[in-house]
Amino acid sequence: MKYWMIAAIMMVSVASFGQDSTYLSNEYAKAMAVYNQAQLYNDIEVQKAALYDMLVLDPGDSSVMRTLSEYYYNNRRYTSSALVAMDLLKKYPGNMVATEIAALSYEQLRIYDKAIEYYQEMWLKLDDNNILYQIAYLQYSIKRYEEANTNIGILESKLKDDVKITLTKQDGSVQEVAFKAAVKNLSGLISLDQGDKEAAKTHFNAALALSPDFEAAKMGLAEASK
User: Taking the complete model, does pTM exceed 0.90, yes or no?
Assistant: First the structure.
């Protein structure tokens, strides 16, 4: 999983628990101990149950909500991860981890317009070119070509020649290519979608000039040449 912000390990402290009751504090500590032990034994179902116990005891615990959303996402339960992330954002507006989980979850659910909203929030705060590329690609996927081209223009003005990006190939493996090549390839896909095969071939050839082994650009050029 590609995270921009998310930490892999949950850090929970009883000191952060906002209840005065000794009983509730003890119950929270017990649930946390169960979680930690289950983590050692890689028992994800017990981990989830312990997280729910902690969340019931302290509904405002952002670290528990964050970890629960990560649990659901990592186990491909994207609807649940999105719902937890949305609840976390209601309690803590602007939380970047929750924003990222929401973006990733909606993308996996193929609700691309919602994914774009959350990726845009991330990009405005982080100014990360990888995020902007993801936004442009999703905009292309739902035929919002004008917006995608605008973001492509922003990327082209910012990218340096030596910057790379890792993309997934058709067989599921990954390939590192020049970031500028990826942007040219995306421009080619947009042109091809709009029926302009000559413009598409120009973009795909430009991508291959930068990264000759770029699988997606080769496939795009073959399609545009038919």
Answer: no
